Structures are given as C-alpha cells and as structure tokens.
Amino acid sequence: MAGNEESSTKQKKSKGKSKFQSVDIIRDNQPLKFRQISTNNNLEEEPQFEDNDAEWEEGCIQYSSFDNNGNNDKDIKGVTVEFDALPESPKKKRIRRVTAEDKEYAELVHKAHLLCLIARGRLIDAACDDPLIQAALLSLLPPHLLKISETSQLTANALTPIISWFHQNFHVKGLDSAEKPFHSALTSALEAHGGSPEEVAALSVVLFRALNLTTRFVSVLDVASLKPDHDVDELPYFESRRHRKGIFSSSTLMVSGMSTGASLSKSSTANGKNILGTFVKRENLSTDIQVKDSLESNQLKHSDQTIGETQNSSEDDKRPKRKGDLEFEMQLQMAMSSTALIAPERKLEASTSDSPSSPLHSCSPFKKLKRIAEESSSSSQAISTAFGSRKVGAPLYWAEVYCSGENMTGKWVHIDAVNAIVDGELKVEAAAAACKKSLRYVVAFAGHGAKDVTRRYCAKWYKISPHRVFSEWWNAVLSSLKELELRATSGVVPLHQCGMKSTDIMGEKSKHLNQGCASGKSSFAENYVNFDKEHQKFAISSSSIDNRGALEDIELATRALTEPLPTNQQAYRNHPLYAIEKWLTKYQILHPKGPVLGLCSGHTVYPRSCVQTLHTKERWLREGLQVKENEPPSKVVKSNSRKRSGQAVEIDEFSETGSDGVVSLFGKWQTEPLRLPPAVDGIVPKNERGQVDVWSEKCLPPGTVHLRFPRLVPVAKRLGINFAPAMVGFEFRNGRSVPVYEGIVVCTEFKEVILEAYAEEEQRRHEEEIRKEERQALSRWYQLLSSMVIRQRLNNTYVYNQESETVAVPFKTEKKTCADITNLNEITEPCQEKVCATKIIGSDMLTQDHEHVFLTDDESFDEDSMTRSKRCRCGVSIQVEEL
DNA sequence: ATGGTGCACTAACCTTTGCATAGC
DNA sequence: GGCTATGCTTTGGTTAGTGCACCA
User: Fold this and answer.
1) Is the distance between the Cβ of A843 and the closest atom of strand C smaller than 7 Å?
2) What is the pLDDT of residue A762?
3) Could you tell me what percentage of chain A is helix, strand and coil, using 3-state DSSP and rounding each to the nearest 5?
4) How do residues A616-631 score in pLDDT, each as one tens digit?
5) Beta partners for A421?
6) From CA A61, how far away is CA A82, in angstroms rounded?
7) Separation of A577 CA and B13 C1' (Å)
8) Do residue A260 and residue A135 come from a single domain?
C-alpha cells in the first residue's frame, strides 16, 4: 500500500460506496493490509480483490495487540479487528434494489396467497349456509326480530335492531381458531357466543341467511405484498401470524362489546344509521370496567403471553421501546377493555411502565386514546380505530345484505356486526387507513362464488391499484366464481316497479360525476361525453337491467370512473383515470388535448384516455402499422440510440430538422395497416439490410411466407430460389444488440418446392448422421476389443507363460457367432477369423483353438521408444521392447 | 411531532444490426 | 484469400423507486 495520500484519494473516489475496510497493521515497519467485508446489504456481490477495484480505509493497530501471547511467529493467523463504530454509517448504507427475480417471486407469492384467501372465503361462505347453525342461531333470536324476514322492502334501518341484538350477544373473543376446521369453529363460536372476528362476522352472515336475507360474507383479503418488501415485518402474512398469537388477530373490532349496548342504541336511534361508539365513551367506560372472573384468568394468561412476546423478555425490558411497541401495548389495552376481558390496571401499568422516558408514556394510554379519539371524532362518523401504526384493528370481515327498499333499485348494504355498523361502507376505508391497511381486495362471497367489490369501499383507487395483481389474471380467477356468486344473489329487479328507467340510472351516473367534479374543483360538464363513452360497456339498456348483478356492476363501474381528482401532483404519475402533462413520459402525448377535468397545483388535469403512446415509424412497423403519408410527426425527441462514430452521418429521414440525433414520433391515429411491396416474379422484397424483419405475420410482404426451419439457406441456394433471411428479434450480447435470425422468407409459390427439398436434405443429413454414428460406434467397439485382446495376450505371454512356459497363446475363435459385427472387419481389415465379442468378454478367452502368428511382414519398429510392434492377422498386436 | 409533498438522486431497465483474430 | 469460429466487452437515456428536506 502506498502512503496515506494515495489511500485518501481512493477513499474519496469510493465515497459512499465502501464495501470493504482495511486496516494497516504496523509490524516491523512494514504495514500489512487486510480487508473486512462490510455488513453491506449487497452481499451477493462477489468481493473484487483487485487493487484498482477495492476501496480501502486506513487504520492502525498496534502489532503488540496481535502478539500478546508472546508468540514471535511471523505469520499472523486469524486477526480480529473491532471497530468502534460500524463500518458504515446509516447515511452510507446502500439500499438493495429489488431485482426482476424478486418481483416475480413476490408476484407469485401474492397470487398464491390470494388463491388461498379466496379458498378460505369460500370455506367460510359454505359454513354460513349450514342449516343447523342457521337454525341454532335463529332459535336464539327474540321472536319480535323474526318479523324482518317478512319485510318486502328491506331497508338498512330495519336491520338495526337485529344488529343491536347480535352485537349484544356475540363478541369478539380474539382467539383465532385457525387450527380447527372453520365449520366446527363456527359452531364453537355460536356456543360460546363469541369468537374470532372472522367467526363473529360469519355468524352474522349465518343469522341474515337464516332470516332469508340475501347476504354475502365480505372479507378484505389481507394478502402478501405484490412488490418485494424489504421489511419483512411489514408483510401482512408475517403480520397476521404475529398477531394471531395476540388477542387481536387481524381484528375487526372497533367498538367494545360492553359499551356498545348503550352506544349502539343511542347512536342508532340518533342517526338511524351509524351506531358507532367513540373512544371518548370508551375512556369513561374503561375506568368502570369490571373484571370478570372466569374469563379474566384465561385472558390474563393470554395477555401475559402477548405482552411477554413484546416486552417480558428481560432484554427487551431494558431496551427503549419503539413507538410501535407502545402503540401496540395501547392497542392491547384497548382490546381488553373493548372485550370487557381486561386485565387489572396494575398489569397494564406494568406493561407500560418500563419506558418512563418515552414521550408516549408521559401521558396515560387512555389520555392518548382520548386525544386520538378526539381527532378521529372530528371527522364525522369516523371509526375510532385511528391509533397506532400497527396493522391491527382494521375491519377485515363483514356482511353485505341486499336491501331492496334502499336506493330505488335496491342496494347491497354494508353491515359490520362486530362493530355494530350498518351501512358504513364509506367508513371502511378510513378505518382501514387508520390501521395502516389498504383495501386492496375486498371480496364478497356467496353461493360458493366470489365477487370483487373493492370499488364499493375504496374511494382512492389510484392508491391501491398499483398494489393489486394485474387485472387480467384477477378477472380470470374470479370469472367463474363471479357467476356462482351471481347465481346465488341475483334477483330480478323490475325497473318499472321501482319507477326507475335507464335514463334514471344514467342520471345517477351523472350525479356521481358531478360529485366528482365538485371534488375536483372544476366543471365537468364537458367531460360527460367522454365519461359516457367510457361507460359504453356499462350503459345497459333498460331491458337488460333486470338483476342485482348488473345494477351492482353499474354502481361499481360508476364509482370506478368518478374518483375525485387527487390533490397532489405525484398521484397523477400513474393514475388510471387522470393525467397531467408534467408526468407524461418521453413517448407520450395528449391526443386529443382535452377535455380539461380540473387543475392540480396549477397543472391542467386531463383524462388518462387522452394519453397516447408514440412510436417511431420503424416501431409501428413491428405492430403491422405504417405511418400515413405526409403525416407530420406528433413529437420530435432526442434520439437515445448510440451512433457509432463511423455512422454518425446517418440522417434521420423522418426528422423535420433533418439533423442527426433526433427521432420523429407518431401516434396510432397517424397510422394505417401496413402495405408492404408485394413479391414480384419470385423476388422477395427486402429491406435495406437485405433481409425481412419478421416481428409478426403482419410484417411479411404479400406473397411471401416465413419458413422457420434451420439450415434452409443452403437448400434455397442450391435450388436457386430467391429468399431473405428472417430476422425475428434481437439478443443483447456482449454489451450490444445482435439480431436473431430464424429461417428464411420466400415467395409462397416456392414454399412446397423448398420444403420438399428441405425434407429430402434433412433425410439425407439424418441418414448421414446415423451412418457416422454407426462408424464411430464400430470404431469404438474395435478399439475396445483390440485393447482387451492385447491385454489378454500380454497376460498370457508374461503371466501365464511363467507357469506354463508356453510361447504360443491359444485363442478361441468362432466363425458362426460373429455375424453381428461383420462391419468391424470391413473397417479394420482384420483376420479371417472373426472375434466373438460375447465370448471374449464372457469367458476367459483362453482357448486352445487359435495360435497367433506374428509375421515379420506385419512388424513395425519405433526407433524413439525402441519398441517393435507385432501383429497377428486376427487383429491382435503386441509391442516388444528391444533391449 | 407527525405526515404529506416534492425534489434530487440512484439503480434497474431498455436499447437494438461488430470487430479482431486464429484456424482451416 | 476467404470463410468460419471464437472471444472480446458492457453505453447511456429513461423511468421507477427511494431518501430527505421542507412545510402544514
């Protein structure tokens, strides 16, 4: 290593990229240098130990520190260096970027997990259809509540008393019974009047179905992330696993069981809709919570376990608590108070008392909760779970009941029996967001089928759509399930009975649209035309709007296309509905440039449908399209293709300016179907490179055909047929693109001729190959046999003869059995007596029938090795060293 | 203190049509 | 001399993703 100066230069050069650290060991005035692989995330990189690549840091360690045992041995073995600070500061920490492989893996996991969750949903749905459970649950229902099944025009309000009763009688008890089959778990939950959130929600579905109400079991599929996640803790499946051990395993609980009796009746009567309690009430209630003996002990044990998981370890106790941990503890306390299965306060205090310095600790958990509750209550009817960053408490399961008396045409009404919420679809997203959950997939299950109803609950679709699997796959998965679901839930809704015509439905759409306009702070009137165009597929005639499924589809589609305009610019980057010019890519343009939907931070917002992708003329050719004559380019951009110095003069023929380095781009509306010059007189029209670019069948000149066989060129040449090599793509090799050729393009009339010739040629080649292989096989057989014979001959001569002192070696031959290897003799000119391979190999070969005769004519002498080779006519040869 | 926003930076991805030399 | 096989070498623009400062 050179001096410090050089080292520091290297350090500067490798600023922020240090992979290794070196330490200079001063020993006998000769600095030694060694490196330590840092704890860099990029571990898969092979360390490069060339000096020019390595990044060195200097440090001095006294030699004596290595030699404290008095060992003067010059070799240093196993040096351990301890650094005061970590080799890399957080600032220098390199982020490991996700690779395509990571993404693919994550997507596979995501899909598999989705399928599992759908299967789970179907299982629950099937269990909810069980007549025994339905009957058992129905038997518990007070008689006056049974009347609801007689209601012809069911409304959400009519369901409130049932929800109230259910909520008073069935509570979330937190313990997840994932180990049990769901059917028996549901039975147990019914007996115990409570269970996991999933079971309680399912029981509510059972109840509604028992009352002959068209009901779906709705579940938020809390699926593993579609994108590779660096932080495994954030992965939902890890999350859920972790929380399954706790009281609130992917809980849906938002309001306590104890409190809701009062709050339910009050709020439900107050607004007739929302019977949600608030945390302010919870705070008051919590001070009066009575410990219930029997359940307490169990719960305490469990809470102890849960707390133990996060804090009971002595190491953890001493560690300063993270915010999330504290929040989790508060969550825990809330959970216990909510279910009236609370641990004694001293326990709670103990659980939070180990981080006195924590800012959160300075106020009591309930004060904190009160503050949060106040915040959440500031937004009208907000669901009071907005505490903590932990992903617990989010609503994951609920029911949807079809209320024919709602909304003129009937409506699927959200009913969260766990939290006693009726028609709270607009609040689900807020509740989920408060618990850091996104409603990526909300799926309704009925009749063994499933339907994606995410749109109903998710207003900000643009936020969740990047986290959903691509729609083609998802739609394909759900298509058959959707039919099943539709069959189970569809019912004819004659429009005339509802006094609603198709125009009214479109009026509804218009209303939604205008709502969207209002939120977008802009007039959308002119957008209606475009909107209507996009809705064409949903604009079903009055005659076809005859079932709930179709109506719901319209409703969901309307929601899909009337999302409010985002208020931040970045949301427009990949927004499926809206776009601003700022976030268009190099190859995108607005065409037509309008209508204007609104403004965002001074940027005009356009519909995403106006964004068109541009391509060069050549690129359009690949799509089987050509740019119309005299079309001016829609956009001229700087070329990013590398021009070699030798070909830099090449001028872009499409460029308006005519200068090099720019590319003209055209939109699809400027193209027409490709019209290539046809083949004339058996001549294939070729491009400037003397080939045909076969990106697709559309790219073939009329009258030509692409023959995708190897070794066709010599055949075509031999027949004198005009052809062109078919280039089918590129391969990136050695840092550059290399064209890939596959077969040739010939005129159609020569297709049969050339294929026949090709078949003959291939046949001939095949036969030739077989012959070649046979020759090789025989040659190898001959070599093998020869070597064996020689070996035996030598054994006989030098080993056997020691005993018998016989010079002549007997050798058995069998003429009759050697027919199989006649070719051997043809190749090698052997003796007339044919060697039987089977005999030689199977027997000792020591026979008395043949005596080798080594004629002097067949001898050869190698002067270098001073050996004489003698050959018998049977093919046996021996080498004799002359002394 | 916290979360949202926007800018700046980074790394993955996409791009896309040789050349020199040795051996036969 | 011509043909073929082999080895060499790895750009730079675009864009999605991430970190961080700033602000409400």
Assistant:
1) no
2) 83
3) 45, 15, 40
4) 888 888 888 888 888 8
5) A416
6) 10
7) 26
8) yes
Separation between the CA of A788 and the C1’ of B24 (whole angstroms): 36
Range of the domain at A835: 766-881
DSSP A700: S
Indicate the pTM of the whole model. Answer: 0.57
- Mean pLDDT is highest, among A148-152, A348-352, A749-753, for A749-753
The token pair that represents A731 in the structure block: 């391969």
Answer yes or no: do A338 and A442 share one domain: no
Structural domains in chain A (count): 6
Q: What is the average per-residue pLDDT within A518-539?
A: 36
Residue A74 CB lies within 7 Å of the nucleic strand C: no
Say whether both A155 and A65 belong to one domain. no
Domain boundary among A465, A487, A509: A487
Question: How far apart are the C-alpha atoms of A40 and A760, rounded to whole Å?
Answer: 61
pLDDT at A533: 40
> Is A658 a member of any domain?
no
- Is residue A677 in some structural domain? no
- Cβ atoms within 10 Å, residue A572: 24
Which band of pLDDT confidence, cut at 50, 70 and 90, is reported for residue A492? Answer: low
Identify whether A633 is part of a domain: no
Residues 6+ apart with CB under 8 A from A713: A723, A725, A744
Q: Residue A358 pLDDT more than 50? A: no
Q: Which nucleotides of B are covered by protein (CB under 7 A)?
A: 1-7, 10-13, 15-19
**How many whole angstroms separate alpha carbon A511 and alpha carbon A514?**
5
The SS3 of residue A24 is: strand
Same domain, yes or no, for A145 and A261?
yes
Q: How far is the CA of A758 from the C1' of C6 (A)?
A: 29
Hey, which of A157-166, A420-429, A768-777 has the most confident mean pLDDT? A157-166
Give the pLDDT confidence score for residue A680 in this predicted structure: 92
Q: Is the pLDDT of residue A22 over 70?
A: no
| Coil, helix or strand at residue A542 | coil
Which of the four pLDDT bands, split at 50, 70 and 90, describes residue A174?
Answer: low
Evaluate whether A400 touches A453 at the Cβ level (below 8 Å). yes
Instruction: Indicate if the pLDDT at residue A382 is higher than 70.
Output: no
Q: Residue A711, CB, less than 7 Å from strand C?
A: no
Q: Are A149 and A27 found together in one domain?
A: no
Residue A440 pLDDT level (bands cut at 50, 70, 90): confident
Strands (E), A534-656: 578-580, 588-590, 598-600, 603-607, 611-613, 625-627, 635-638
DSSP assignment letter at A409:
T
Torsion of CA A221, A224, A226, A230, to 10 degrees: 150
- Where a domain ends, among A564, A588, A609? A564
Q: Say if A620 falls within a structural domain.
A: no
Is the C-alpha dihedral spanning A143, A146, A151, A157 positive or negative? Answer: positive
Whole-number pLDDT of residue A436: 66
pLDDT of residue A310: 35
Residue-wise pLDDT tens digits, A120-141: 999 999 999 999 999 999 999 9
Q: Which of A201, A252, A200, A231 is nearest to A391 (CA)?
A: A252
pLDDT at A543: 41
Q: Any idea what the CATH number is for the domain that residue A472 is in?
A: 3.90.260.10
Q: Please tell me whether residues A423 and A406 are part of one structural domain.
A: yes
Inform me whether the pLDDT recorded for A289 exceeds 50: no
The conformation of residue A492, written as its DSSP 8-state character, comes to B
Nucleotide showing the shortest C1' distance to residue A646 CA: B18
Please name the residue that has the structure tokens 């050089």: A6
Whether residues A314 and A271 fall in one domain: no
- In SS3 terms, A349-364 reads as HHHHCCCCCCCCCCCC
Do residues A418 and A539 share a domain? no
Environment class of residue A547 by beta-carbon count within 10 Å: exposed (0-12), middle (13-18) or buried (19+)? middle
User: DSSP string covering A387-414, please?
Assistant: --SSS-S---EEEEEEETTSTTT-EEEE
CATH of the domain at A705: 3.30.70.2460
Mean pLDDT in residue range A843-854: 56
